[in-house]
Design a protein that fits this description.
There is one protein chain. It contains one helix and twelve strands; from the N terminus they run αββββββββββββ. By secondary structure, the protein is mainly β. Keywords: Signal. It comes from Streptomonospora mangrovi. This is Copper chaperone PCu(A)C. InterPro entries: LpqE-like, Lxx211020-like, PCuAC_sf.
């Protein structure tokens, strides 16, 4: 009486498993080959933006906050939107606008939708107007220092700007955010900031 050959079903099972693995490998290779995104896209918003005349107000750390000013320049034919910023010298960074409060005095508050730089356009960051607020300072900022700030745009792309620290004086705006950042904060017009105007 002939015995059954268990090796035959086992061999068939191994062949089937091998075919399944080969199929998975081919699918994975096809997926990774065609779907990889480039590290940097030529159409990235950050690639089209430069910052002219960037500068930061000199303050002691105990002041708690200062601001970055300059001009955002868009060299592309599409609008860009700055939505966030970060720096190693501040625990919190916010995009701010200045509006007139109920009492008639200027009040600064977060710009929820960010700053839009139109196609081939410019957007000024000025004392008494739109600016980038550096809050929860971890060190004194003295004239002659440089501050590196990373700017993030709506498409997730980023760029860095290096801004010199300068002395200036100007008007006071209240901060609408309340909490530890409430009260007046002087970041008005510049004196000795390379021609920056006094908007305070």
């Amino acid at each position: 009486m002939a015995r059954p050959h268990p090796a035959l079903p086992l061999a068939a099972a191994f062949l089937a498993a091998g075919a399944a693995l080969t199929g998975c490998g081919a699918g994975a290779a096809a997926g990774s080959g065609g779907g990889a995104a480039p590290e940097a896209s030529p159409s990235a918003q950050a690639a089209a933006i430069t910052v002219e005349d960037a500068w930061v107000k000199a303050v002691p750390a105990e002041d708690g906050m200062t601001a970055l000013f300059g001009v955002l320049v868009n060299d592309s034919g599409q609008e860009a939107r700055l939505v966030a910023a970060a720096t190693g010298v501040a625990g919190t960074v916010e995009l701010h606008e200045v509006v007139t409060g109920d009492d008639g005095n200027p009040v600064m508050r977060p710009k929820e939708d960010g700053f839009v730089i139109g196609a081939n356009g410019r957007h000024a960051l000025e004392p008494g107007a739109d600016h980038i607020m550096l809050m929860e300072l971890g060190e004194d900022l003295e004239p002659g220092q440089e501050v590196e700030v990373e700017l993030e745009f709506a498409d997730g792309s980023t760029t860095e700007v290096t801004a010199p620290v300068k002395d200036f004086a100007g008007g006071e705006e209240s901060y609408e955010g309340g909490g530890s950042h409430g009260g007046g904060h002087d970041h008005g017009g510049a004196e000795g900031a390379d021609g920056a105007e006094d908007h305070g």
